[in-house]
Design brief:
mainly alpha; two-stranded antiparallel ribbon
């Protein structure tokens, strides 16, 4: 796995690779699904906003929606494999 970094608000933030961060991310996503912020196959805009906000609040790390969505998609692929 690579340790890619994306510039976000002038700072480079490494992609989510730590098991603890992935677990926190999954827990937050599950909570948003249960709240109805994923009515079909995709999270709503409000759902992604809450995921980003809660993830930053719990970890102190700010990731863009794109980074979090990429991680979500990668985790789905791993799960299906």
């Amino acid at each position: 796995m690579s340790t890619s970094a994306v510039e976000f608000s002038g700072e480079k933030v490494k992609a989510i690779r730590d098991k603890r961060l992935i677990e926190i991310f999954c827990d937050i996503c599950i909570k948003e699904i249960l709240k109805g912020n994923r009515p079909g196959t995709h999270f709503t805009k409000d759902g992604w906003l809450k995921i980003m906000t809660n993830f930053e609040k719990e970890t102190g790390k700010a990731y863009s929606q794109r980074q979090l969505k990429n991680r979500w998609d990668a985790l789905k692929k791993e799960w299906k494999a």
